[in-house]
Design a protein that fits this description.
There is one protein chain. The chain is α/β, with parallel strands linked by helices. It contains five helices and six strands, in the order H-E-H-E-E-H-E-E-E-H-H. A hairpin with an 8-residue loop joins strand 5 and strand 6. Helix 2 packs across helix 5. The radius of gyration is 16 Å and the shape is globular.
């Protein structure tokens, strides 16, 4: 891992079709959304504005971020799928998240890409398989965002989503709170 991005050179070679470079730190994300429950709910998706905030913040530190939210010619079970609505996702290994990981996340990407589910509530990271922390759940529930973060406008709601994903990505690359 010459660029110290958590991907071994053999994995970067495997990912060359996605522009992986063993001398440039890269972060790969596949994201799926979640259907809304009620007609007045918002879509649970990774907004382009939120994605751009993350891409730009990492770029300031020389790290390239690739986000698959539905690439043309992407793999079967690539990003951009809409998962069925679940009020509150579980974070236990073997539950709903593991089922999404196994059925909606391409096998060739497991352990290399981070799988980000934009869901209704909460936010956390867990290992779904391979003992790597590569599965992230981030909630976009409006009442929760207003109550916890003061996200009263659609613009600030997108900022909050970017902050949540950025926070969980930090855990996936080894940034943990110190004691």
């Amino acid at each position: 891992d010459t660029d110290v991005d958590g991907l071994e050179n053999t994995e970067e070679y495997q990912m060359r079709k996605y522009f992986a470079d063993p001398f440039q730190p890269d972060i790969y994300i596949e994201t799926d959304g979640m259907n809304k429950k009620r007609p007045r709910d918002i879509n649970h998706v990774f907004w382009k504005e939120s994605q751009q905030m993350i891409i730009e913040r990492f770029a300031q530190h020389g790290i390239t971020v690739y986000i698959d939210d539905g690439w043309n010619d992407g793999p079967v079970n690539g990003g951009g799928e809409m998962l069925p609505f679940i009020e509150e996702m579980d974070d236990v290994i073997g539950g709903q998240v593991k089922a999404f990981y196994e059925h909606n996340f391409a096998d060739e990407r497991k352990g290399i890409f981070r799988y980000v589910i934009i869901a209704n509530k909460l936010g956390w990271i867990s290992p779904s398989s391979y003992n790597t922390f590569d599965t992230i759940n981030v909630g976009t529930n409006v009442p929760q965002a207003v109550k916890l973060y003061g996200a009263f406008t659609p613009r600030y709601h997108r900022v909050v989503l970017a902050k949540k994903v950025f926070h969980e990505l930090g855990h996936s690359i080894g940034l943990l709170p110190s004691m």
